[in-house]
Structure of Amidophosphoribosyltransferase:
Amino acid sequence: MCGIVGVVSNAPVNQLLYDALLLLQHRGQDAAGIVTLLERKFFMHKAKGMVRDVFRTRNMRALPGSVGLGQVRYPTAGNAFSEEEAQPFYVNAPFGIVLVHNGNLTNAHALRAELFSTDHRHTNTDSDSEVLLNVLAHELDRSTRDGMLNSETLFAAVRNVHRRLRGSYAVVALIAGHGLLAFRDPYGIRPLAVGRGADGTYMVASETVALEGSGHVFERYVAPGEAVFIDLQGQLHAQQCAESPSLNPCMFEFVYLARPDSVLDGISVYQARLNLGETLAQRVISTVPPNEIDVIIPIPESSRPSATQLAHLLGIPYREGFVKNRYVGRTFIMPGQGVRKKSVRQKLNVIGSEFKGRNVLLVDDSIVRGTTSREIVQMAREAGARKVYLASAAPPVRYPNVYGIDMPTKDELVAHDRTVEEVRALIGCDALIYQDVEGMKRAVLKAAPGNGPKLDGFDASCFDGVYVTGDIDTEAIKRMNGNRPRIEETEEDSSRLALPNLSET
Ligand SMILES: O=P(O)(O)OC[C@H]1O[C@H](OP(=O)(O)OP(=O)(O)O)[C@H](O)[C@@H]1O
Ligand SMILES: NC(=O)CC[C@H](N)C(=O)O
Ligand SMILES: [Mg+2]
């Protein structure tokens, strides 16, 4: 889940893109990049790091032009440590194209081979996004053989791109001398929205928070399979380019990834999280009698709305027992288990008085590898809690995600192939309460107003093992994700919690 943005304006866009990327920083913290277009020339700056570190004043000055795009990266393919895989990607032919991608191609391996042997195109990194750009470039080249690029030939190229790509993709591309192209995969897994500024500026972004926070008014979502082209005169053209599109947004966006003040495909993320707290309340009541819980404490940051609603419905005081160091990034999206584990304690510190002698119910939005929960439960005990219960607003994460969230191997998931009781023992809490899959889907759907886009379902694959694209080649995924270079892990930091050593660690 990277964050992507594109802008077509009449005024310089460098600051606007920077501001939008800052608003999308929660979606990717490993690398950032911006490209602007002035006349027919692209200007690019990208590097590893957070937005504030990547762009210094001198870099910003070197990004002229009133059209541009940007990305914050959270690697899910290729090599997390390679500077070359920071986005945007560039190809010089046809026309000159730069591209940013949020998502994950599940057939990148096969496509890379096909690009080389059939299309005679070279890719120089292990990134699936570079593959995507080359497929688009090849199809655009084919559809504009007579030399004309217009919305018709552009949409014909996107139709062919959809035929070749598998997996999830929300894309923004700039075509030198022509304009900005945005499209979304036929299953609508990753989000993409369009907004408009008072001066006529168009902005396309992963989340509505980037539109609103930078002074744009939300206009519409890019529909699954649809392509939107904004030419350099500021005219928007749109066409459905997929044969049978359906809308199945990623459930994990609502559970964790997106900012609560965003609305994705008509569903308010905040309302979805409140509703998750409501359904979770019923599950808690059936496991731990509410009169045995003295206080409800959220695990900052993402679980807060669910925890507030849960406390309200159970009539139990809601207290802040952990203070978050806001200068430490989101731990889940860090590359490598060692760094994630260390960051939990750096990031969260206890307020001892909220725990001493009390039975506490801790609430998190999700338990993935169990890194956070295990540390937190231990911290609550060290602070003197009598009983430590833990509730998760999402069901157990049991299956790998192949659509752009970095949980590629089932072995690193604490709940894979384990009963709830086994997970409880590993985490070390006195009771563990999970949301159930149907309850989660109902809760999130309930957050959609009647007049929003009609959903066909969710991509909830990491919870229910159902892959909406229906064509998952597990061997290819393993090759693509499981074997990709990651931070060296010591034995102590090994990514899956081990049952036998629990008391020693
Ligand atoms: O079981 P785990 O593998 O530890 O992953 C789950 C945890 O990671 C996320 O928090 P994170 O610190 O990334 O971000 P947040 O501040 O938005 O909650 C999520 O909210 C859970 O707390
Ligand atoms: N999370 C994402 O959207 C990642 C995009 C792309 N697969 C990459 O690894 O760079
Ligand atoms: Mg968290």
